[in-house]
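Possible regression after last week's pipeline update?

I re-ran a chain I had predicted before the update to compare outputs. Posting the input and the new output here so someone can diff against the archived version. Not blocking, just want to make sure nothing changed silently.
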Amino acid sequence: MTAPPTAPTVRTTPEGIRWEPSERWVRGRTGNTTVVDSRHPVLVWEPGTPVPLYAFPREEVREELLRPAENPPLGTHSGSRIFYDLDIDGRLRENAAWTFPSEDLAGHIAFEWSARVGRGLDHWYEEEEEIFVHPRDPHKRVDALPSSRHVQVTVDGTVVADTRRPVLLFETGLPTRYYIPREDVRLDLFEHTGHSTGCPYKGTATYWSWRGEGDVPPNVLWSYPRPLPAVGAVKDLLAFYNEAVDITVDGERLERPVTPFTRRSPGPDS
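New output (post-update):
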């Protein structure tokens, strides 16, 4: 009997950086220019940062497009001291790339992921699928499962949702989210906002805020109109932040979880 292949081992540098090789083909582009084309990327988790980023062997990076940074943000990215500006046709993106101080990652260059910060590349791909926000964590799982549980949601004492056909979304490191058909939600009690967030596992979410009184944070309700295929079951359903509303499942009132979302406005991992 042939033994199963061994999964890559996560390693930790003396600086506390966690990393592991990835077998995915990763490309990064700005406009029509491919800046990174790598079949040997490395996933990197910086200390205190829950989501990974990629670092790439120098030979798989268009180094001729990089210039020593004029204003390097020293002290960031685990104490990195070497930063690069990205120069494409005379258009400069400051501090778009850097090298880590660890010997374990010598010979690799990391890039800012999102162009929205004014430094990253415009588009990233794993194989032929475009990836948004940040690389997906191979140690994180997201499952969207249709259910027949009885879910009831109240806001400031008002019942705003009642269903027996939710979709439960289980995501590593986050509370279970209860996605509810629109017909079972009092959407008239909420106001659609212009807020939106992106998630590499689920897609782009749109939000609603509570119209009534009470200590209810904005953007407490959201939906994915075009979710990624892996969580297609939540399409157009509505979910509430467990941290800010009261949810009862099969007659049992759930405790409000304490997460980073308890203390700030809703973010991308909804």
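Follow-up from reviewer: compared with the archived run. The chain has a mean pLDDT of 90. Marking as no regression found.
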